[in-house]
Amino acid sequence: MQIRERKLPWWLILVTGLLIVAAGIFVLVDNIKGYQNGLNVLVFLTGLGALSFGVYNFIVAYKTRSDNSMFLSYLVHGIIDIILLLLIIIIRNSHLLLGVIIACWMMVFGVFEVITGRRNDNQKHTRLGAIFAIVGLVVLVIPLIFSIDYLTLIGIVGIVFGLLRVALGIMIKSNELKTNSKVV
User: Which residues neighbour 141 within 8 Å (Cβ) at sequence distance 6 or greater?
Assistant: First the structure.
């Protein structure tokens, strides 16, 4: 069974980008002031994301059960997402743990995106996966080398990633307007 790529509408990309920027700013400001709200929000959002991706991967694994390689790939990805969720729930909240979990999750997500991209001969997915894996590695290693707090780095990465999504949403809308004006 071939899974078709689903394209998100430009406004959803823009809104999620703005939300990610807002969350990044909140985490940075909260961390500078020394509160724990930013950590609690990130733990909740990361747990919710891990649960969502885990369920999604189990559903896709079920739908692709006739193709062993796709089934196993999605099943393993779903199991890893659920393991990360359990780590977030079981282990006490800490900046270090959350940073390591987010970094590992990004690397795992990236590796599976590369596998999916290679399998479907989709260079966009392959590049996106490589970027996620590299950013995950950077988020894991940079705080250890430069003694930067994980929440600060996650806040900065969130702002940059959110701004890139905002720019992508604007570019998609701009391309739609150009295409529609040529049709008329």
Answer: none
